[in-house]
Amino acid sequence: MNLGFTGIRKVAELAANIALIVLCLVLSASLFQRYLGSHSRCAASGKQATAGFWRCILQNEFPGDDGPFLILALRSDCPFCKANVPLYSQILTVWHKKRYPAIAVFPAHDGKAEEFVEGYNLQVQATRKIDFHEAGLDRVPTVLILGPNGVIRNAWIGHQAKEKCEAIAGRIRAF
Fold first, then answer.
1. 130: nearest Cα among 32, 50, 42, 9
2. Contacts of 33 (CB under 8 A, 6+ apart)
3. Confidence label for 5 from pLDDT (cuts 50, 70 and 90)
4. Predicted confidence (pLDDT) per residue in 14-55, tens digit
5. In whole angstroms, what is the distance from residue 146 CA to residue 61 CA?
6. Apex CA 115: angle with CA 141 and CA 158, to 5°?
7. For residue 65, with 0-12 CB atoms within 10 Å meaning exposed, 13-18 middle and 19 or more buried, which class applies?
8. How far apart are alpha carbons 58 and 135 in whole angstroms?
């Protein structure tokens, strides 16, 4: 089979075109997988806690439940989180009487999250480790009440004095 110079050039051009098509398909598949992967992990953009981020977490933990939901954002080595355990217990008791779900969230790197919840007997339906930066959380302890679409309805951030604890518990009762 004698192709000559013109024939070799056409074969090389065809091979180059096929290589470009394969490269485009591989890159497209990679980008598509990256896109799907970021959304399935409940990623939020920026530092704001978006309703979409929380909605994703709540749908994963409590499928079909419209809430409202109580979120306790804690860190196992946080002295203020430990000091406010009586408040959390009081809030959770009131919250559960209304039959609403509660979840405790900890930073992704917190290796003692489950121990904290069990050790202080916090009655939550789920304990989850999340990226606080993605969730827009920058301080602990934080108590959030979320509506059915993941919209934050109430928030208490930081250590709460004993007087403030009663006010918060009263606010929860009225919810």
1. 42
2. none
3. low
4. 888 898 898 888 777 666 555 443 333 443 333 344 667 788
5. 14
6. 5
7. middle
8. 13
